[in-house]
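2024-03-11 09:14:02 INFO worker-7 job=invfold-0412 stage=load source=structure_tokens
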């Protein structure tokens, strides 16, 4: 089935120029205006720009074919196959830009209720094509059949879509620690470029961040964008990015999945900010031996998997063997509490008095010393809430932003007997 979102609405996050450059498509060089034509035609007609690329590829292999050779002139003149009917061509639709604009306008007509070419009435009913009947399940399928009335070409639409944009992901990947292992797997499969959430893993010039090397900042910036997070703090180099992240209050106390780690590196010097460029990686997960697995783009060929320079997963102990270069740990997650989801000691403040607590990775506990000396613990949230620490009388909240690793309890929960006062140090 062809989902409607492939056809509409307009996706302002999709950059046609970056896509063609990153593919790479020969059209990025020999037809430099194609990207702008597609982008504006899609915007003006509220269509997904990918559908116009898909159509050009399906009709004439125009996105991937080399220039020249047999059929090239026809491909240029009838890029979208619009007005090139099975019986004759309609001359006023000839020409690359004319094709893009006319096809987009035509598709919009198919989607506009009241227009004489509106296809909404065809959905769910057998539709007569040149090679038999087909019952379109979506507006996009009905529009596709109006455009090309052949049942046998419908599977091509899906195949070409997947060849250009990758297989559909059921859910958007929004965590860097989930996205970056997928980039590494793509590279291990020998892919030279990859797409996630419909966005290519390329830098702003369209270079693949899988295979280009020494692109540490660009790789983390793009992973951040692909995951739908704010890439605003990213700057000219890792060092400067770290400074911006610190300024934005994104510094966290301990490494957590998805955290960005910035390292000192005295050379080379960044041309923009004149500091050592440094290095930036993303923490993926803690390994059984306590080391951290990190995603990075590097020119190093002596660490990580795969060894070759480019995007890879490396151990923190390989990146910073002596633990002397790490200058900051940052989290872009909106919920900063995520960043503190590392098991260990915490502070439990009950009505502003601090007690010793423990966080096990899921729940916060209050440490209790029983009269017989046996250690005991109470689950903070459920116990406090059962005692009435819920709005409006009270509240229990993990407040990691200003005061790392502290759980605050306000309200009618009396301090349990045996609670151990927390002492700094
Ligand atoms: Zn810089």
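2024-03-11 09:14:09 INFO worker-7 stage=emit residues=425
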């Amino acid at each position: 089935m062809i989902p409607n979102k492939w056809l509409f609405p307009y996706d302002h996050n999709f950059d046609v120029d970056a896509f063609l450059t990153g593919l790479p498509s020969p059209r990025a060089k020999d037809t430099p205006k194609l990207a702008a034509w597609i982008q504006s035609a899609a915007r003006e007609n509220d269509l997904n720009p990918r559908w116009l690329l898909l159509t050009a590829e399906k009709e004439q292999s125009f996105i991937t074919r080399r220039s020249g050779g047999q059929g090239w002139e026809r491909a240029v003149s009838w890029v979208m196959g619009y007005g090139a009917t099975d019986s004759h061509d309609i001359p006023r639709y000839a020409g690359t830009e004319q094709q893009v604009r006319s096809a987009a306008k035509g598709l919009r007509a198919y989607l506009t209720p009241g227009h004489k070419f509106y296809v909404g009435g065809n959905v769910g009913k057998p539709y007569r094509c040149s090679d038999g009947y087909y019952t379109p399940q979506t507006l996009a399928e009905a529009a596709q059949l109006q455009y090309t009335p052949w049942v046998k070409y419908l599977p091509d639409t899906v195949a070409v879509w997947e060849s250009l944009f990758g297989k559909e992901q059921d859910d958007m990947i929004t965590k860097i620690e989930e996205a970056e292992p997928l980039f590494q797997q793509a590279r291990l499969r020998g892919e030279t470029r990859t797409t996630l959430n419909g966005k290519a893993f390329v830098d702003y010039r369209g270079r693949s961040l899988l295979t280009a090397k020494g692109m540490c900042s660009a790789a983390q910036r793009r992973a951040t964008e692909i995951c739908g997070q704010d890439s605003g703090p990213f700057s000219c180099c890792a060092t400067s990015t770290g400074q911006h992240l610190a300024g934005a209050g994104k510094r966290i106390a301990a490494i957590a999945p998805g955290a960005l780690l910035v390292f000192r590196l005295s050379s080379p010097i960044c041309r923009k900010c004149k500091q050592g460029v440094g290095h930036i990686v993303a923490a993926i997960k803690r390994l059984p031996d306590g080391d951290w697995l990190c995603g990075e783009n590097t020119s190093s060929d002596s660490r990580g998997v795969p060894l070759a320079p480019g995007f890879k997963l490396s151990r923190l102990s390989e990146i910073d063997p002596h633990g002397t270069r790490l200058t900051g740990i940052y989290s872009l997650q909106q919920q900063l509490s995520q960043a503190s989801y590392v098991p260990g000691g915490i502070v439990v403040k009950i009505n502003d008095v601090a007690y010793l607590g423990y966080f096990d990775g899921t729940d916060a506990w209050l440490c209790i010393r029983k009269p017989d000396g046996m250690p005991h613990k109470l689950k903070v949230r459920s116990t406090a809430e059962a005692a009435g620490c819920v709005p409006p009388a009270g509240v229990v909240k993990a407040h990691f932003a200003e005061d790392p690793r502290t759980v605050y309890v306000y309200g009618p929960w009396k301090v349990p007997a045996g609670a151990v006062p927390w002492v700094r140090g």
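2024-03-11 09:14:09 INFO worker-7 stage=report msg="The chain has three domains: 4-165, 209-337, 343-410."
2024-03-11 09:14:10 INFO worker-7 job finished
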